[in-house]
Every structure is written in structure tokens, then in C-alpha cells.
């Protein structure tokens, strides 16, 4: 006798030992056969199910009511089903720790987390993370690239209003190309999606007249063709379109006949064009090999020649002239008498160092490191001169 908790009591079917009688006549009663099979299962698996029931009751008390109501299932299948569920209890996230109790609520409440996990990290703001699929082709407002229909995003879904009793949802997402924010809302009034910001819908309107194609009649027009007046009006419109398009069609047919009437001439022109193309490719490859390049160069053009002529490179003459001018600017205006050859040599070195620093300053290549090095070297030269004079 088991107490469920709501005031009712249910009896767990215990195994009953009884004699198993098998009849050899073929007209045996179906109900009697089911009763014999049930008693056989109870006799064989009764003790095992009793131990299994106690184990499940110790792990999950809430499953006791389920076990008590499943008396119509054969004990063998019941044992197999619960043994497999116990084996995969941890894998299916149905593991109840020992410190859990029904008073603490569900497992999510017990662990302090939401059932949707990371998707509900902004649920306190009314925002839910969903997978949003682009309903049409759009142009990104950040980089002007096209986002095709069907591309999916992780979007923030929230309610921004109501249209009568229908909610208006807003979807905020970031494009994968430039991380630009795109906001799209539902339009229940027109049963469509509206771009609020961050993108522009790609216009894809189709006009049969501009495309010069035929428009297939819809079902309503087919039903109206039964009416003789509507059919007469429809035929008049078709005849009018035929008269307008007939000159254009005749002209196109004449141009096509003039171009493709002579198959031999067309084939000859095509083969001549192909031979000329092959010859040009061979000449370009030979020219590339001659100058040591592994790729073919484009044929020369006047624009490339003008661009190459406008480029000026620095020559050694110009560099020497700048160095001499800088040496003159950095030298002293008073002529000093040199006491020895070493003194003059050190003085020339100092002037060269100062001249190189000044030339860099004139051409805009001044660097603090080079100026400091020149200053340090000039100080060393002065110390050497003082030691020689002394």
C-alpha cells in the first residue's frame, strides 16, 4: 500500500505465484491468454521490479505516482524502459542532486539559471536572443554591401508596441561585413517587415513591358474569358500590342538574318579572331620571358607612358650638390690655420658629418636620432682636437 501524497492510495502490483497451465486447444480465449502471460511476467520479474521501484523511489520520489499508474504495461517492458532512463539520467539533464527537494522548485530555479541559458541573458530588459532570417535582400548601411535573403543573424527580439491585439516585434542585429547595427520591425497592418534603421531594402520590381515578356493570365482572368464582352476587349488589346511590336520584331529578324545567314563567313571570321588572339598571347609570353617575368604584361598604352615619364628619380649628381651646399652652409666663414695634417683631417670629418645632417634637414629627412648621433660625434671630434693641441 503506497501513499501518493494527495490523500489517495494505490496498490503496487506485487508478483503472485500461480501455476502456469498451457492449453493445447486452438480456440483458447484471448483474455485468458493475456492473463496467463501477465502472471508469467509477474512470476519471473516481480522481485526485480520491486527492488527497482525502491531504487527509483529513493532517487526520484516524484516518479512514484507514474509507477503506480503504469500497471497496464508489462513488467518486462517497464523494467527495460526505466533501466535505460536511469542509465541516461545525467546525459538528459534530469539529474536531481541529493540537496534538492521539491520545496526548492525546478532544477533551473535551484541552480539559479534560466531554461534558455545564454539566450535569456537580457530577459530582465524584455529582450530574447533568437535566430533571425532576413526576409528579403537588403543593402547594408555601413559598407553598402548586399545581404541576401535567407541569411541568419543572432538578433535581439523585443516588443515595441501593439497593433490592436497583435504585438509589434523589433529585431536588432549586427551585420557580419562591418558590424553595423540593423533594426527591423514587424508590420501587422500590412503583413510585412519594415526596416527601421541601418539598412535599405533592395528594390526588385518587375515590369513585363520593360522586360519584353508575356504575362500569364491569372485564374480570375481565365474565368472572365468566358464572358464574350471581356474576351472581345482582351483580343482588341492583344491586337494593339501586336501592331506596336511588329516593326521591332521585323527589324530584329532582318538584323539576325544578315548576321547569321552566311555560316561560312561567320566561321571564317571567328577562326581568324581566335588565331589573332593566340598569336598575341604568344608574343606577350615571349616578351615576358625576355625580361625575366613569369606573367604576361598588358600591351603598352599612352596613359602608362605619360605616367612613367612624370616620375622623377633622384640622381647622384643632385645628391652631391646638396651635400656640398650643406657643407658650405655648416662651415665657418673665418679661415683657420691648421697646425698639422691630423687636425685638418679631423676638421674635414666634422664638416662632413655636419653637412650630412644638414642635407637631411633640407630634404625633409630629419630624424632626432641622426641629429643626436651627429652632435655626439662632433663633441668627440672637439675633444680629440683639444688633446692634439695640448
UniProtKB/TrEMBL annotation:
One of its GO terms (biological process) is mRNA splicing, via spliceosome. InterPro entries: Saf4/Yju2. GO terms for cellular component: post-mRNA release spliceosomal complex; U2-type spliceosomal complex. It holds the Pfam family Saf4_Yju2. Belongs to the CWC16 family. This is Coiled-coil domain-containing protein 130. It comes from Capsicum baccatum (Peruvian pepper).
Amino acid at each position: 500500500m503506497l501513499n501518493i501524497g494527495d490523500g489517495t492510495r494505490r496498490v503496487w502490483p506485487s508478483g503472485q505465484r500461480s501455476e502456469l497451465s498451457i492449453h493445447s486447444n486452438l480456440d483458447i480465449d484471448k483474455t485468458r491468454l493475456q492473463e496467463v502471460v501477465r502472471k508469467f511476467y509477474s512470476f519471473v520479474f516481480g522481485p526485480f521490479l520491486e527492488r527497482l521501484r525502491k531504487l527509483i523511489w529513493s532517487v526520484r520520489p516524484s516518479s512514484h505516482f507514474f509507477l503506480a499508474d503504469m500497471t497496464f504495461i508489462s513488467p518486462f517492458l517497464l523494467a527495460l524502459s526505466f533501466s535505460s532512463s536511469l542509465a541516461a539520467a545525467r546525459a538528459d539533464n534530469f539529474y536531481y542532486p541529493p540537496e534538492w527537494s521539491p520545496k526548492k522548485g525546478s532544477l533551473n530555479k535551484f541552480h539559479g539559471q534560466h531554461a534558455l541559458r545564454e539566450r535569456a541573458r537580457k530577459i530582465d530588459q524584455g529582450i530574447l536572443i533568437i535566430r533571425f532570417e532576413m526576409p528579403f535582400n537588403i543593402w547594408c548601411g555601413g559598407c553598402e554591401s548586399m545581404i541576401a535573403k535567407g541569411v541568419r543573424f543572432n538578433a535581439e527580439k523585443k516588443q515595441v508596441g501593439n497593433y490592436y491585439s497583435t504585438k509589434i516585434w523589433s529585431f536588432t542585429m549586427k551585420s557580419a561585413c562591418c558590424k553595423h547595427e540593423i533594426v527591423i520591425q514587424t508590420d501587422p497592418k500590412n503583413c510585412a517587415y519594415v526596416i527601421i534603421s541601418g539598412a535599405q531594402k533592395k528594390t526588385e520590381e518587375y515590369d513585363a513591358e520593360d522586360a519584353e515578356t508575356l504575362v500569364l493570365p491569372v485564374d480570375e482572368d481565365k474565368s472572365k474569358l468566358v464572358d464574350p464582352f471581356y474576351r472581345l476587349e482582351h483580343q482588341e488589346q492583344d491586337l494593339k500590342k501586336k501592331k506596336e511590336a511588329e516593326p521591332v520584331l521585323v527589324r530584329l529578324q532582318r538584323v539576325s538574318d544578315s548576321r547569321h545567314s552566311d555560316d561560312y563567313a561567320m566561321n571564317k571570321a571567328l577562326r581568324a579572331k581566335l588565331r589573332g588572339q593566340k598569336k598575341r598571347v604568344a608574343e606577350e609570353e615571349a616578351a615576358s620571358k625576355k625580361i625575366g617575368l613569369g606573367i604576361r604584361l598588358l600591351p603598352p598604352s599612352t596613359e602608362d607612358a605619360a605616367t612613367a615619364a612624370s616620375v622623377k628619380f633622384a640622381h647622384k649628381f643632385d645628391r652631391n650638390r646638396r651635400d656640398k651646399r650643406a657643407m658650405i652652409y655648416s662651415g665657418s666663414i673665418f679661415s683657420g690655420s691648421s697646425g698639422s695634417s691630423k687636425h685638418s683631417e679631423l676638421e674635414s670629418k666634422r664638416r662632413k658629418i655636419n653637412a650630412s645632417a644638414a642635407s637631411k634637414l633640407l630634404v625633409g629627412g630629419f630624424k632626432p636620432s641622426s641629429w643626436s648621433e651627429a652632435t655626439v660625434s662632433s663633441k668627440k671630434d672637439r675633444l680629440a682636437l683639444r688633446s692634439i693641441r695640448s
